[in-house]
Specification:
This protein has 155 residues and is of the alpha+beta class. Helix content is 28%, strand content 34%.
Length: 155
Amino acid sequence: DFLGEWRVLMRRKQLFNYLLLSLLSLSLLTGCPGASDYDIDLPGGYSVVRTSAHQVTIAPKRNDTGGWGADVIPTKVTEVAWDDNYIIAKQLGLKEDEDSGNGYQIPDEENVHFWIVEIKIDKVIGPLDNESFMAKKAELEIPKDVVLKEIDEIR
């Protein structure tokens, strides 16, 4: 009968709309992968590379592939500064998030390291604690105006 078929069609339409709305909501909640990824060019062919919220490293650019080589400063780089001769960086190690049961890692504020890249000779010095970092900066005569800044400030 016509009324019965009409009800079936309306239920199917309702189910379709519900599924479509659910999928759209889910995609908005999860976001698009890579939407917040970026890279920041540094001197000497290096880049700050962000591939997720806590995966922020410094790596050399590869001219042959257009990508990046192996990380010279591991994740998570939180601050960086540079001049023509040096790149300096602050890096936080990661630890497992106790509130997450799936191995998700978050920055460990107690696991702080500093790094220096001598650009002209591609030499990486680090990880250093704050005292060793300050001493090495003085030894290398890195100018005082090369001051670490939050990554978000230089983006």
